[in-house]
């Protein structure tokens, strides 16, 4: 799968929050780092690019983001050490850790460690208002549905959810921005988004045309939460101009992760910077409102990196030693 690096160099002279370099233990720190995100037009890319630049600017280490296939590929790239950091969702993380990744069947990706909670990924459906599709039940047989990049969280789980709800469809993959364009041009019928809100591609789409953002009814939400590792989630009406009332969907948690061999002091400083300055993270993406220490307990899949665990334990968020990578 092709990737595209988006690097943003930053130097010690730009430090604005972190302690002076001389005050930090920088033993073994890399000269640069890269964060695995996902396709352009999605929340992972916006969040991950902004976070990478924020860390680089404040810790004086050159860093940036890389466009990838999303959570599954990020797990593989971080496990092998091709990337130092990445963003993942708990469902794909569990499958990858258990050796069930479709990208590398049988490979147990156990050299990936949790750093901090990001936000929940809602699974929502968008269609053009002109299509007349206002509910999942309205999706016609053999509709073409865009499920995002191949191997992404959406592509991994949303087709199964649609099948569970009795929807017959033709599958289409692509970046979120590309699929949004195809929807607007009438080349596909529906886009099944799984990304932190607001999703850039949806925000851009609704400015250009009228869309329906579709939630789930009681029966649909109940069936999906019973069958998949998700929970119910409410998209606030203020998220998109197209929503007149809150929309109920389902969601899955996301975490930032590190290769477990990254220096403890480096991961500690990154975790400290991120968790202690939520206002800066929210300025990168509104989904970061949930990137707060209290949500550390949402990780029940990945072992914690010792550097991240040290910050959480020092600040009253207890992580048992058995959950920390040794």
Structure notes:
The protein is 32% helix and 22% strand. Strands 1, 2, 3, 4, 5, 6, 7, 8, 9, 10 and 11 form an eleven-stranded mixed beta sheet that branches. The protein has two domains: 4-119 and 254-323, D-Maltodextrin-Binding Protein, domain 2; 121-252, Periplasmic binding protein-like II (D-Maltodextrin-Binding Protein, domain 2, 3-Layer(aba) Sandwich). By secondary structure, it is of the alpha/beta class. Keywords: Receptor, Signal. InterPro entries: TRAP_TAXI (IPR011852). It comes from Marinobacter nitratireducens. This is TRAP transporter solute receptor, TAXI family. Residues 1-23 form the signal peptide.
What's a quick, concise take on this entry?
32% of the residues lie in helices and 22% in strands. The protein is α/β, with parallel strands linked by helices.
Write the layout of secondary structure elements.
Elements: E1 4-8, E2 32-36, H1 43-59, E3 62-67, H2 71-80, E4 85-89, H3 90-97, E5 112-128, E6 143-146, H4 153-164, E7 169-172, H5 176-184, E8 190-194, H6 200-208, E9 211-214, H7 218-227, E10 231-235, E11 247-259, H8 264-275, H9 278-284, H10 306-314
Parallel strand pairs: 2-3, 2-4, 6-7, 6-8
Antiparallel strand pairs: 1-3, 4-11, 5-8, 5-9, 5-11, 10-11
Keywords: Receptor, Signal
Pfam families: NMT1_3
Protein name: TRAP transporter solute receptor, TAXI family
CATH architecture of the largest domain: 3-Layer(aba) Sandwich
What is the total number of structural domains? 2
The geometry reads as globular
How many β-strand stretches? 11
Helix content: 25-40%
Look at the helices and sheets and give the structural class.
alpha/beta
Low-pLDDT segments: 1-22
Largest beta sheet, briefly?
A: 11 strands, mixed
Please provide the ordered H/E string of secondary-structure elements.
EEHEHEHEEHEHEHEHEEHHH
């Amino acid at each position: 799968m092709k990737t595209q690096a988006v690097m943003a160099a930053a130097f010690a002279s730009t430090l604005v929050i972190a302690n002076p370099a001389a005050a930090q233990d920088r033993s073994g720190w890399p000269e640069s780092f890269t964060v695995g995100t996902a396709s352009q037009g999605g929340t992972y890319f916006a969040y991950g690019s902004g976070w990478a630049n924020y860390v680089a600017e404040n810790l004086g280490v050159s860093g940036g983001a890389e466009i990838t296939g999303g959570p599954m590929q990020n797990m593989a790239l971080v496990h092998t050490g091709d990337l130092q950091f990445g963003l993942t969702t708990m469902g794909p993380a569990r499958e990858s850790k258990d050796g069930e990744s479709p990208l590398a069947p049988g490979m147990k990706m156990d050299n990936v460690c949790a750093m901090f909670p990001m936000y929940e990924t809602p699974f929502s459906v968008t269609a053009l208002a002109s299509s007349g599709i206002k509910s999942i039940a309205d999706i016609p047989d053999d509709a073409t549905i865009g499920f995002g990049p191949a191997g992404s969280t959406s592509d991994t789980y949303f087709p199964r959810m649609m099948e569970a709800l009795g929807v017959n469809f033709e599958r289409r993959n692509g970046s979120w921005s590309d699929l949004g364009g195809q929807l607007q041009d009438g080349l596909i019928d529906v886009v099944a988004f799984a990304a932190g809100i607001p999703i850039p591609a949806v925000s851009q789409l609704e400015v250009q045309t009228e869309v329906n953002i579709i939630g789930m009814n009681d029966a649909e939400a109940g069936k999906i939460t019973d069958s998949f590792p998700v929970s119910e989630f409410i998209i606030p009406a203020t998220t998109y101009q197209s929503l007149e009332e809150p929309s109920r969907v389902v969601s899955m948690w996301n975490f930032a992760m590190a290769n477990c061999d990254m220096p403890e002091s480096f991961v500690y400083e990154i975790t400290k910077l991120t968790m202690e300055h939520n206002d800066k993270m929210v300025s990168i993406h509104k989904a970061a409102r949930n990137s707060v220490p209290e949500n550390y307990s949402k990780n029940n899949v990945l072992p914690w990196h010792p550097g991240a665990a040290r910050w959480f334990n020092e600040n009253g968020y207890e992580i048992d030693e058995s959950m920390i990578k040794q």
